[in-house]
Amino acid sequence: MPQDPLENNLLFHNTSDLPDRHTGNLPDRSNPDQFNSFDRQMMQRCLDLAKQARGQTAPNPMVGAIVVQGGEIVGEGFHPGAGQPHAEVFALKAAGDRAEGATVYVSLEPCSHFGRTPPCADALIAAKVSRVVVGMIDPNPKVSGAGVDRLRNAGIEVVVGVEESACRELNEAFIYRILHQRPLGILKYAMTLDGKIATTTGHSAWITKPESRKLVHGWRSGCDAVIIGGNTVRQDNPLLTSHGQGHNPLRVVMSRSLDLSQGAQLWNVADTPTVVFTVAGARPEFQKFLLDRGVEVVELADLTPAAVMTNLSDRGFLSVLWECGGTLAAAAIQDGSVQKILAFIAPKIIGGATAPSPIGDLGLERMTEAIELEEVKWRSIGSDLLLEGTIRRSQPESDTGE
Hints:
Layout: H1 37-50, E1 64-69, E2 72-78, H2 87-95, E3 103-106, H3 120-126, E4 131-134, H4 146-153, E5 157-160, H5 164-170, H6 172-180, E6 184-192, H7 210-221, E7 225-229, H8 230-236, E8 250-254, E9 274-279, H9 284-293, E10 296-300, H10 305-314, E11 319-322, H11 326-334, E12 340-346, E13 373-381, E14 384-391
Parallel strand pairs: 3-4, 4-5, 6-11, 6-12, 7-8, 7-11, 8-9, 9-10
Antiparallel strand pairs: 1-2, 1-3, 12-14, 13-14
Helix pairs in contact: 3-4
């Protein structure tokens, strides 16, 4: 499987970020060497299987499972999407009678409740497996340790925490939605060394190198939606697809005026859907044009990033990629619609006092009010630099002067 482009961008790095529902004989996470190499190898295979459904499982997590009998993989599977069987069910079906007495590896704790499908813990018990190795406890309060307890009460040995960090990374957006009841918002932008996202004329293609743009296409395939504003439609006429790298996200446009071209690529929805959010009564004739083309139009009483994210949350989405201009980016940061920043910095200088920057006016007047990032990482993508970080939502420090 190709490497997940969003790996190593985890918003929650510590177990303290989840509710303390870990019970039983859990491993000492300060000693990762306690797990044997075979267990790690099998869990990594579970993660590779899970990634086959990137961007397609919302509101469910990505999960992979393997059945091992006598050191041999006899069944494997992954969860393809909501309403379909879970990973364990596919793996047990593939294993057949060989599941009895086997070890099952699964990247997320088996469920213990009836949802759209029966409890996976019950399926494992019925298959008479002898051991279950779990990557991470499910943060969902409906499960959160209950699946492990059910297996142990049935006499099945359970090990928890193998490749736990990687399992959390894979389902970062699912964890965030469970804890905060909304999708994870990710703001991506590319700027020059002097902080510009376009020239004074609005021209912006291309700031970064092809390697960086390819990485963005991969990010899109792992998200449920990508959002831009009307000005980006007018200036760039983007396609907003994954360019063949996988699942295409829902394409979202926010525009109050609907002063948009009928020739925009986004109105071609034969392969990828588009939804336009606007205000009530905005350009009825253009709304009719969009509807006739198969574009969904949603009128909101108050067109804000938070209102749009609420709508996308109601659709069950896990992650939303913001690829908008500075004005909309600032609004999304201000109202809490963005939690993570992915910023490319290209070794170019274009200057221009009026050339746009990636973030518009936030109303801040002192450096001590600046929004800080934490869990910051830098890496090179060809000649470009990529900064990854999460927004710190704590109160700013007081200004004591120098």
